[in-house]
Amino acid sequence: MLVLRRRAGEAIVISGDVEIEIIEISRTRVKLGVTAPRTVPVVRKETIPVAEQNRKASELLPACGREGIAGILEVLNALPPKVSDGSTDKKDSIPERGNRE
Amino acid sequence: MSPAQTITSPYMGCVSWDPSDELVFPAGLPGFEQERRMLPVEIPAHRPLVYLQSLDRADICFLTLPVFTIDPSFSLHLSDDERQVLQLGKHVGDEAAPAIGVDVLCLAMLVPCGKTVEANLNAPVVINLHNFRAIQSVASGVSARVLRLSDAGSWVIVC
Fold it and tell me: Are B91 and B130 in contact (CB under 8 A)?
C-alpha cells in the first residue's frame, strides 16, 4: 500500500483524471473532495456489500411471485406482537399514498 | 395541483400517484445509483410489507418492512452527511435524533435467502417525512446486524 502524508488543502491525483483533495481534518475525521469523470464510480467502501444485498433484494419479487409473498405474509402474521418499550408511540407506517388501480 | 401519474408494475399492476408523493433519493441506492425517484406503496392486505417501487424502471421494486416490525428496540444513527442529505436540520434540529414514525420512516430491505428472507438493520432506508427526501443509511464501523425470518415464526439474528 502506498502511504502518503498530506495536509488540508493538498491533494493527490490518480491516473491523471481522478483528484482527491483533503478539504478538512478534524480530530477523528477527514473530509475529502473527489473530482472524477462521471464514468468512475466513487462510493464509500461500506456501501459495497450493501449494493450486493440490494441487487439480491431486487430479485426477491421476480423470484417469489404471489405465492412467495403469501408465504412471507403468513410467517409475518404468525409472529407474536412486538413489545414496545412504552416510551414512545412507535407508529411506523407510511402516509397513505400510491393507489393501485 | 399536479396531475396523478401512473406506472404499470409487474408486481402490483397499475399504480397511480401524485408527484408530490414521490420519494427523492439524491444519491440513489447502493447498486442502484440511477434510481432517484421511488414510491412507497402499502397494500392493505399485505401489511406490514411496504413496496418500494422505482418510478423510472417499472421492473425495479423492493420489498421492505418498517424496522419496528422486526426490532422494536431499533435505534437510528445518522452521520452528519446523511442528516445533511435528508435536510433534517430544518425540521429536527442539528443535534436531535429524528423520531421514527414522526420525523422519519425507517424501512429494512428484504433480501431473499433460500425460501425465506433476511433484513439488514444496519442499512435501513430512511425517509424524511417532512420533505420525502430519502437515503439508504449505511452504518460504518459497525458489525452487520442481519436477521432472518425463520419458518418457526420469529426473526433470528444471523450476524
Answer: yes
